[in-house]
From TrEMBL:
It comes from the Bacteria. It comes from Actinomadura decatromicini. InterPro entries: HTH_HxlR (IPR002577), WH-like_DNA-bd_sf (IPR036388), WH_DNA-bd_sf (IPR036390). One of its GO terms (molecular function) is DNA binding. SUPFAM superfamilies: Winged helix' DNA-binding domain (SSF46785). Residues 16-114 form the HTH hxlR-type domain. Keywords: DNA-binding, Transcription, Transcription regulation. This is Helix-turn-helix transcriptional regulator. The keyword Transcription regulation applies.
Length: 126
């Protein structure tokens, strides 16, 4: 047996801030909003139409959360009716690039992951 011990509490404390940030940006709705807003200023109704299955209430909550996290800027134009647009911050634009890389990785390796799952299931269901 190995004499080397790893202090898991240290690893957990280092991972905690990372996990917290990833929880904020990795949700299904957050990713959809960030991807939709990456094309430039986008209005609430455009977001609502482009993100299949999201309710108005959930969209409102997620937009506020992403704005609070410093990932979106909400701009209200003084017109009637009010025009509100959302744009990505510089930090979110950097995140968007990472999301595109992750998407590309998933496309390249999705088949291999599915094959590994099928092989695992066959080996463990016998």
């Amino acid at each position: 047996m190995s004499q080397r011990h790893i202090d898991v509490s240290v690893l957990a404390s280092e991972a905690c801030p990372v996990s917290e940030v990833l929880d904020h940006v990795s949700g299904k709705w957050s990713i959809g909003i960030l991807v939709a807003a990456a094309q430039g200023p986008v209005r609430f109704t455009e977001l609502e139409r482009s993100i299949t299955g999201i309710s108005r209430r959930m969209l409102t909550l997620k937009l506020r959360k992403l704005e609070r996290d410093g990932l979106l800027v909400r701009t209200v134009h003084p017109v009637v009716p009010p025009k509100v647009e959302y744009t990505l911050t510089e930090m979110a634009q950097e995140l968007h690039k990472s999301l595109l890389e992750l998407t590309d990785w998933a496309k390249r390796h999705g088949g291999a992951v599915a094959a590994a799952q099928a092989a695992y299931d066959r080996a463990h269901n016998d």
